[in-house]
Amino acid sequence: MPFRSPKANPLTHLSLAPSTTPTTPPQVPPEPLEGKFYYDDATTYTGQFVYVLNAGETVVPAGETRPRKRHGKGTLTEGNARYVGDWDNDAMHGEGTFTFPSGATYTGEFQNNQFSGRGKYVWSDGRVYEGQWEENLMHGKGVYTDHKGHAWTGQFYNGVGPGLDLRIDRF
């Protein structure tokens, strides 16, 4: 190979002709449909869903049946438990409210079926935690208020709050 000057353009031997290779347009997710599903255990889901599509498909081919995934806004009711909120790829994901059979509620952010991000949990006896969550645990800055109204503030780690400060409001 002959010596090339460092100032020479090493790309002069390349063809700059347009590529003839076909390009695939970006995959556009299908628009959610609306429906109500009944499960064998009497659980119901009412809301948006999408069909599971193969690579390159934008609709289900005629005559085929495909599984569905909850996706978009929807309500899942299982006995006395209920979730109202966002779904993504068949998981509670985004903003929502989960009400437990005990009457306790969690309102806030979900990620892959777990409390994750900012949220507020209210126990049926009146206790409240408001703050950061990670993998269903109080984790990060938050405020825990006991059933007597005493507020404990600080940093929570994996569901516990070592070294919290008690905030006493005097009237």
Descriptive overview:
The chain is an all-beta fold and 171 residues long. The chain is built from no helices and eleven strands. Strands 1-2-3-4-5-6-7-8-9-10-11 form an eleven-stranded antiparallel sheet, with no helix packed on it. The chain is elongated, with a radius of gyration of 26 Å.
Question: What does the secondary structure layout of this molecule look like, with pairings?
Answer:
Blueprint: E1 33-38, E2 44-51, E3 68-78, E4 81-88, E5 91-99, E6 105-111, E7 114-122, E8 128-134, E9 137-145, E10 151-156, E11 165-167
Antiparallel strand pairs: 1-2, 2-3, 3-4, 4-5, 5-6, 6-7, 7-8, 8-9, 9-10, 10-11
Mean pLDDT: 84
- How many H/I helices? 0
Q: Helix and strand string, N-terminal first?
A: EEEEEEEEEEE
Strand content: over 45%
